[in-house]
Automatic annotation (TrEMBL):
The lineage of its organism: Eukaryota, Metazoa, Chordata, Craniata, Vertebrata. Residues 89-205 form the RGS domain. It comes from the Eukaryota. Residues 64-79 have a biased composition (Basic and acidic residues). Residues 46-79 are annotated as: Disordered. Gene3D superfamilies: 1.10.196.10, Regulator of G-protein Signalling 4, domain 2. This is RGS domain-containing protein.
Length: 206
């Protein structure tokens, strides 16, 4: 009886050790049944396009000016003899529709169109007869060409500028006359001479 009990006790101890070893192995083995259902973390592709972010010190885009220059209308091309008259006086250029359009295009190509645009605006103002329309046009001309820092501020002396500002208090067709004549003289002395040597003009009179 004692011998049989000893054998049984030894057998139980060996089975307990076996179960302990097997249980430890199971603890170290990964559970494939559950890990197969886990969605792996996806790394960002190397060629992914990053989303644009606005820099803190980004410079805002300039606002579009209130007045946009329009493409000049197309007129019948003048004869060579007619275009040759443009070379005698700036007045001959500005009083001809094709000449005015060509001269404006030339100044735009030089980024110096403020003088001719001011001159054209003044001519349009002088043809206006309704008081309400005159006031609106005078205000626009002042904002765009006369006031300091205007987008197309013309180069006139301070005396002419002061006279023009005073004239705005009592509108007449001649409100901008002094400033217009000074700007005309600037064009006649500078840009008009360059225009006569330009490819635009030479192409017309050849």
């Amino acid at each position: 009886m004692c011998k049989g009990f000893a054998v049984l006790q030894q057998t139980c101890l060996e089975r307990a050790k076996h179960i302990k070893v097997k249980f430890g192995t199971l603890l170290q083995r990964p559970d494939h049944e559950h890990t197969e259902n886990v969605i792996p973390f996806q790394k960002k592709p190397e060629n992914a396009i990053p989303l644009p972010q606005k820099p803190e010190n980004a410079i805002p885009l300039p606002q579009k000016p209130e007045r946009c220059l329009e493409t000049p209308p197309k007129y019948d091309r003048p004869s060579r003899a007619e275009a040759s008259q443009w070379g005698k006086a700036l007045d001959n250029v500005l009083t001809n529709n094709y000449g005015l359009a060509t001269f404006r295009d030339f100044l735009r190509s030089e980024f110096s169109e403020e003088n001719i645009e001011f001159w054209v605006a003044c001519e349009d103002y002088k043809r206006t007869r309704e008081t309400s329309k005159m006031a609106a046009k005078a205000k626009r001309i002042y904002k765009e060409f006369i006031q300091t820092g205007a987008h197309w501020e013309v180069n006139i002396d301070h005396i002419t500028k002061d006279v023009t500002v005073r004239n705005l208090g009592r509108l007449t067709p001649m409100t901008f006359d002094l400033a217009q004549r000074q700007v005309f003289a600037l064009m006649e002395k500078d840009s008009y001479r360059r225009f006569l040597k330009s490819n635009q003009y030479r192409e017309i009179i050849k």
